[in-house]
Amino acid sequence: MRYWFNVRNGNGLTLDEEGQIALDADAARKIAVSSIRSIIGEEVAVGRLDLRGAIDVRCEDDNTGFTVEFAAAFDLLLPSEGQ
Fold it and tell me: Is there a domain that residue 23 lies in?
């Protein structure tokens, strides 16, 4: 099945014009998580970390979809107060 991965972040909305083939929704979710990590990696390289974005995933067959929030792509380990 073909899935489209539309990115919403500080740059606005970027529509996926081509989509990607994935076996099922779980595989599409893995693609979204990998994409988020790549986007964040590029931002971190220039000193920015903004986890407020999301990728909206849509399937061609039944036009169903789901959203993967940027923050959901990471296990966040933050310092506790006083450290």
Answer: yes
Tell the residue number behind the tokens 């310092």, with chain if given: 79
**14-58 confidence digits (pLDDT tens):** 999 999 999 999 999 999 999 999 999 999 999 999 999 999 999
Domain presence at residue 83: no
DSSP 14-74: E--SS-EE-SSHHHHHHHHHHHHHHHHHHHHHTT------EEEEEETTT--EEEEEGGGGS
Report d(CA 23, CA 61) in Å as an integer: 12
Residue 19 lies in a domain: yes
Pick the closest to residue 55 from 38, 35, 74, 40 (CA basis): 35
